[in-house]
Design a protein that fits this description.
Distance between the termini: 19 Å
Helix content: over 70%
Strand content: under 5%
Radius of gyration: 21 Å
Mean pLDDT: 78
CATH superfamily: MFS general substrate transporter like domains
Number of domains: 1
Number of strands: 0
Order of helices and strands: HHHHHHHHHHHHHHHH
Largest sheet: none
Shape: globular
Number of helices: 16
CATH architecture: Up-down Bundle
CATH class: Mainly Alpha
């Protein structure tokens, strides 16, 4: 990348590796299925109840399940072959989507079934997510990790362009309807299963002590607490995602009730709008995600995301809301790509699964917060609640940026913040040495 210029070859460098390419396709098919169900679940919940709180309850089940499953998934990713964990996760995701589709097709769907489907998906995601991200390190190495993570998120956000509008269009066609759309989502999950089958079955570390899941989860928490950069990253991520990302929960009600547009296709359109910005930022970021100082870019894009959510609450018309959501999508990709890449580079291989599980607990918080936020929307108003969510996410991001800048200044002045350690192996390691322990590209 001479002169700081990045071409298409560098932007898609990780895809030249056959095994990573298979992992990328597996993720693409899985994301397609999940994004379709995300929209379908919201539409069906609204049609069955016409209440913000009921929609929030569906996501609460999803988030509460992830809260329990994700730490266990992190332990599994560090101890079991990641391919095996991903395969069984896809089996559960395929079964859940297919069962929900059959219920709707036969006219037997009920609200509790949506909650049950959320439980299955939350459990499967709790195991699938940490294994997939940690597997990336094994397939591409640390030097291309930022590029690989960004391409994975580019894939996810690319499906967010197609999946919502595709699902919304299918739901509006009598021949398919919501049930048929669910069945097609199940087919995409099965295609992901087939792609995972072609990945290498890399054995975990052979000299691990006997499994003690609870002790290992606690060890993972201590590991994060002992590393100030990593700790700040995970805490801020939890707040940003828990509050800011919940704007998507309100999209069906915002379109159908606030903007008074009844056709499901409008819901799909505004959901896809987020991905227009996401894909644009992802393409720009892919070749730059391994450069030093990327934590600043992460802080800027995270702040743009939070401000965008607040601006969505003030949007007077549907089309202005669509434009705002495009900006939100760009901020989402920048923030998620870089937070994942930085977290992986700051983590030793022995703990990557558990650290990723803690990072992905943000999405459990997202699901758990959906119900109280839905009830709050019913009490004080939908727009007011969305504005509050954006303000909280923005404040968390600005707090992270100030704290990280202060820490970097101390390091440059030769007075690094005190390194808190919990094991002898970590003694005498400052954040500065911690950041540079692998490669220069490991800087946040």
């Amino acid at each position: 990348m001479a002169g700081g210029r990045t071409g298409l070859k560098e932007s898609f460098a990780s895809l030249s590796l056959p095994d990573y390419r298979r992992l990328w396709w597996a993720g693409t098919f899985s994301f397609m299925a999940v994004q379709m169900q995300f929209l379908l679940r919201g539409i069906l919940a609204w049609e069955l109840t016409e209440r913000d709180g009921a929609i929030g309850l569906v996501y609460l089940v999803f988030g509460g399940t992830m809260l329990i499953a994700t730490p266990l998934g992190g332990v599994a990713a560090d101890r079991l072959p990641k391919r095996t964990v991903m395969l069984w996760s896809q089996v559960a995701l395929t079964a859940g989507a297919t069962a929900m589709g059959l219920a709707v097709v036969t006219g037997t769907e009920q609200f509790w079934m949506l909650a049950a489907a959320g439980l299955v998906q939350g459990t499967a995601f709790g195991f699938y997510g940490p294994a997939r991200v940690a597997f990336t390190t094994e397939l591409v190495g640390r030097e291309q990790l930022g590029n690989a993570i960004t391409l994975s998120l580019l894939s996810m956000n690319g499906t967010r362009v197609i999946a919502p509008s595709f699902a919304g269009a299918l739901a509006g066609i009598a021949f398919f309807g919501i049930g048929g759309a669910y069945l097609i989502a199940g087919a995409f999950s099965f295609m992901s299963f087939l792609a995972v089958l072609r990945l290498p079955n890399v054995a975990p570390t052979a000299d691990l002590p006997p499994a003690r899941p609870l002790a290992e989860i606690i060890d993972g928490v201590r590991y994060v607490r002992s590393r100030p950069h990593l700790r700040r990253l995970l805490v801020s991520s939890f707040i940003v995602i828990m509050f800011g990302f919940n704007y998507v929960v309100f999209i069906p009600a915002l379109v159908k009730d606030t903007f008074d547009l009844d056709n499901d296709g409008w819901v799909g359109l505004i959901s896809s709008a987020a991905s227009v910005g996401a894909v644009a930022v992802g393409l720009w970021l892919a070749g730059r995600a391994d450069e030093p100082g990327r934590w600043r870019v992460m802080a800027v894009t995270g702040t743009i995301f939070g401000v965008g959510v607040a601006a969505l609450a003030l949007s007077p018309t549907f089309w202005i809301a669509v434009l705002v959501v495009v900006i939100i999508g760009g901020g989402t990709t920048g923030y998620q790509s870089l937070s994942n890449a930085i977290a992986l580079n700051l983590t030793e291989p022995s703990h990557q699964g558990r650290v990723q599980s803690l990072l992905q607990l943000s999405f459990a918080g997202f699901g758990i917060a959906a119900l109280p936020l839905g009830l709050l929307a019913e009490a004080i108003g939908r727009r007011q609640t969305i504005a509050l969510m954006g303000i909280i996410a923005t404040a968390a991001m600005l707090t992270y940026a100030v704290a990280e800048r202060s820490a970097q200044d101390e390091i440059e002045a030769g007075e690094p913040e005190a390194a808190q350690t919990s094991t002898p192996a970590m003694a005498n390691r400052t954040p500065a040495t911690e950041i540079n322990s692998s490669t220069r590209s490991a800087q946040p």
